[in-house]
């Protein structure tokens, strides 16, 4: 495996048990305090409740993947969630 792939793997984190009321934008803001997010993907429930404009509000399924720019930021993120 090339070293760039190993580096990306080391800086990636799987987060689970995200509360149902947390939106993708809010969670991005929370994680961005640990540095620049290179990649972020929150798994959303497409069957979430509808708002008054009949647009579907996609709520979290409770888990996400995040990748930060620096390994030291990643370590800080881990300590925050344990």
Keywords:
single chain, 3 helices, 82 residues, elongated, alpha+beta, Alpha-Beta Plaits, 3 strands, 34% helix, three-stranded antiparallel beta sheet
Structure commentary:
With 82 residues, the chain is an alpha+beta fold. It has one domain: 2-Layer Sandwich (Alpha-Beta Plaits), CATH 3.30.70.330. The protein has three helices and three strands. The protein has helices at residues 3-10, 24-32, 71-81, and strands spanning 12-16, 37-45, 59-68. A three-stranded antiparallel sheet has the order 1-3-2. The protein is elongated, with a radius of gyration of 15 Å. The N and C termini lie far apart (29 Å). The model has no long low-confidence stretch (mean pLDDT 75).
Overview in brief:
Helix content is 34%, strand content 29%.
Low-confidence stretches: none
How many strands in all?
3
- Give the percentage of residues in beta strands: 25-35%
Biggest sheet statistics: 3 strands, antiparallel
The general outline is: elongated
Spatial strand order of the main sheet: 1-3-2
Task: Label the structural class.
Answer: alpha+beta
Helix percentage range: 25-40%
Nearest-integer average pLDDT: 75
Radius of gyration: 15 Å
Instruction: Please count the helical segments.
Output: 3
List the domain count as a whole number. 1
């Amino acid at each position: 495996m090339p070293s760039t792939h190993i580096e990306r793997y080391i800086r990636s984190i799987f987060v689970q048990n995200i509360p149902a009321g947390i939106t993708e934008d809010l969670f991005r803001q929370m994680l961005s305090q640990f540095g620049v997010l290179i990649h972020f993907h929150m798994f959303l429930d497409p069957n979430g409740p509808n708002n008054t404009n009949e647009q579907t509000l996609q709520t979290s399924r409770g888990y996400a993947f995040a990748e930060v720019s620096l390994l030291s930021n990643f370590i800080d993120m881990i300590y925050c969630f344990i």
